[in-house]
Amino acid sequence: MTRSSLVRHLLGRSLLRNRPCSKSLIPPSLNESLISTVEPITPQIPSKTFFNSEPFKSSPRYLFTRNLCSSAGSSNIVMIKSEEELNNSLSKAQDESLPAIFYFTAVWCGPCRLISPLVGELSQKFPHVTTYKIDIDEEGLQNTLSKLNIFSVPTIHFFQNGKKASEVVGADVARLKSTFEKLYSQN
Q1: pLDDT score, position 75
Q2: Which region, left, alpha or beta, applies to residue 24 given φ > 0 means left and ψ of -120 to 50 means alpha?
Q3: Number of alpha carbons in the 13 Å side-chain half-sphere of residue 29
Q4: What is the value of pTM for the model shown?
Q5: Residues 124, 118: Cα–Cα separation, whole Å
Q6: What are the two backbone dihedrals, phi and then psi, of residue 134, each rounded to the nearest 5 degrees?
Q7: Is 83 helix (H, G, I), strand (E, B) or coil?
Q8: What's the average model confidence in pLDDT over 156-169?
Q9: Distances in Å between the alpha carbon of 35 and those of 2, 11, 39, 105, 168?
Q10: Distance spanning both ends of the chain, measured CA to CA
């Protein structure tokens, strides 16, 4: 057995066991000569990484920011995390006749992700309207969601003068914009 095949054999066995070679497997004289002949491996890192490449730098599709997150700054978007919060928010919109929208969404929902930035923009355009964002997968919301007939997402309920004035089910961008304009424009 040649020296290189012995090294391959020993290294292969140790890698299969997921641990380094034991010195006891190699005679000390051979071990020293093998260690001195091994050249260090330097990884080759490309100067241009995948996400720094041109399509990712210039395309706005990849430069989006997450709207409707809980750290939205001066936004009027309220994240609903429990059934109690949802019931209190619904009561507030109805009892105090406040303009509000209830945006029912889910993390896994592709159409929800499509309209989420638009809902964020519209909530900034109409700051007098409170936007409540409800993730339907939150623990304990199922009873209230079924009472509200939320069976698909995205679903948006529009409240005006204490009553549900409109509803948009699905990612209908044009209808969403027109409903916001019709109900909440202050002209």
Answers
A1: 63
A2: alpha
A3: 0
A4: 0.60
A5: 10
A6: -125, 120
A7: helix
A8: 94
A9: 16, 12, 9, 60, 70
A10: 91
Of 112, 122, 134, 153, the catalytic one is 112
Q: Which of 109, 122, 168, 176 is catalytic?
A: 109
Q: How confident is residue 177, by pLDDT bands cut at 50, 70 and 90?
A: very high
Residues found in the chain: 187
Taking the C-alpha atoms of residue 102 and residue 156, their distance in angstroms, rounded to an integer, is: 6
Side-chain half-sphere exposure of 131, counting CA atoms within 13 A: 29
Taking every pair of Cα atoms in the chain, the longest distance, rounded to a whole number of angstroms, is 91
What is the Cα–Cα distance from 37 to 83, expressed in whole angstroms?
A: 68
Amino acid at 166: S
Residue 131 has φ and ψ, to the nearest 5°, of -105, 125
Q: Can you read off the two tokens belonging to residue 106?
A: 């889910």
Q: pLDDT tens-digit profile of 28-78?
A: 555 555 555 555 555 555 555 444 545 544 444 444 444 444 334 446 899
Which pLDDT belongs to residue 164?
93
Q: What sign does the CA torsion over 117, 122, 125, 128 have?
A: negative
Burial class (CB in 10 A: 0-12, 13-18, 19+), 104: buried
112 is catalytic: yes
To the query of whether residue 21 is one of the catalytic residues in this protein, the response is no
